[in-house]
Amino acid sequence: MKLTVKEYMSSRKVSRRTIYNRIENNQLTTVKENNKLYIIEENLGTKKSSITKNQVSNSLEVNSKLLREIQKEINNLIMLTNEFDYKLIRERLVSLDNANINVFNKLDTISKYKIDENFDLILSQLEKSINMGEILSKKVNDIEEKTNMLEQKFELIYEHVIDFSEKFSILFSDRFGEKTEKEKKKLINIFNKK
Length: 194
Prior knowledge:
Blueprint: E1 3-4, H1 5-12, H2 16-24, E2 28-33, E3 36-42, H3 53-83, H4 86-176, H5 181-193
Helix pairs in contact: 4-5
């Protein structure tokens, strides 16, 4: 037996999910060829194999080894925290804090002098960027207008093409088919209107 999943679904009248559940439970044997899954054997009498005591004991051993390793790492971290010199860190933090305060005070005095100079520069840059924004806005509007004009021209060309095709079909049918006098007058009126 070699059936695709679709063929098996239609012959056994089961859903695709049922088929995949049976594959997971080892009730169907499959082979994959050319990116297609073929069912080659049915084992509907067998159920999914249960976990054996051996597998449980193996997993318990592995888990206990992992727990022992984690316990060792935790003990190492506890030893490191006990040996850590907090007094040295506290002294370093205080000295860094004092240095930061000194730098902040110096920056404060320097920044008071620089604020006036930088404000004029920032203001001129802001005015330039506003002017540039207005120019870009005008250009975008111009592009939109040109796009609208192009769309209108394409619509006009399309109408002319349709009108020409209608006239050509009338001429073509007149040339190769029998026309009555009434139809010939219609043809003449069409050309006179334009």
